[in-house]
Specification:
Elements (H helix, E strand, L loop, with lengths): L1 H15 L2 H8 L3 H5 L8 H8 L1 H22 L6 H16 L12 H9 L5 H16 L1 E3 L1 H18 L4 H20 L8 E3 L5
Antiparallel strand pairs: 1-2
Helix pairs in contact: 1-5, 1-6, 2-4, 2-5, 4-5, 5-6, 5-7, 6-7, 6-10, 8-9, 9-10
């Protein structure tokens, strides 16, 4: 269990580095990030405020800071509870960064990075499928509501498909962290709209 704690701490500290802030500062666009409607230091706003390369670097590093702790932890002896801690730690660090007074981003890219660190593609495929389904088939707008529904759909799907316990529990913690940050967001929360395919 000590090994899991070390990697969870590494994941949390890795997650706490908000690369949207790092790269928008390097590109001289940090002020534009602060002027965004939700002030979220995430990939979307990095693209919007800093441009293509700023956004791409932010996306790459946000994925990597989730991927590395999980991938490295699974290379040695591990437990399911340990996996749950390590899988959720980068998301918790990103959403509640110790470097920014426990404020942070929403954790979507970091979640994908964590799931990509697993040897199985099913968990990340489930989350991706949730976003695609609620974006292209049963379209839920705005993005705020779509994200919450996609995460809840993925969490339920992982239970029904009997994904490994450590992955399920880690993803549940990540879902709670993402939904909490979304609820705390200062962005204007428009009414949820669902557009059925045959009504487009």
């Amino acid at each position: 269990m000590n090994r899991a704690i070390y990697f969870a701490l590494f994941g949390y500290l890795s997650g706490s580095i908000l690369y949207a802030r790092v790269f928008t500062r390097l590109f001289g666009k940090e002020a534009l990030l602060e002027e965004s409607p939700d002030k979220n230091p995430g990939t979307f706003n990095a693209f919007k405020a800093g441009g293509f390369w700023c956004g791409l670097l932010t996306l790459a590093f946000d994925l990597l800071k989730g991927y590395l702790p999980v991938m490295l932890y699974l290379r040695g002896a591990f437990t399911q509870w340990g996996l749950a801690l390590v899988l959720s730690a980068p998301v918790l660090g990103h959403n509640f960064s110790v470097l920014y007074k426990f404020k942070g981003g929403k954790g979507i890219a970091v979640t994908f990075g964590c799931l990509l660190g697993l040897p199985q593609v099913l968990p990340v495929g489930i989350l991706a499928a949730g976003f695609l389904f609620f974006s292209l088939v049963l379209c839920i707008t705005p993005h705020y509501h779509r994200t919450i529904v996609a995460y809840l759909f993925a969490a339920l799907s992982m239970v029904l498909l009997r994904v490994a316990r450590g992955v399920r529990y880690g993803f549940f913690i990540s879902t709670l962290a993402v939904c909490t940050r979304l609820l705390q967001s200062k962005e204007a929360k428009e009414k949820c709209k669902v557009v059925l395919p045959w009504k487009r």
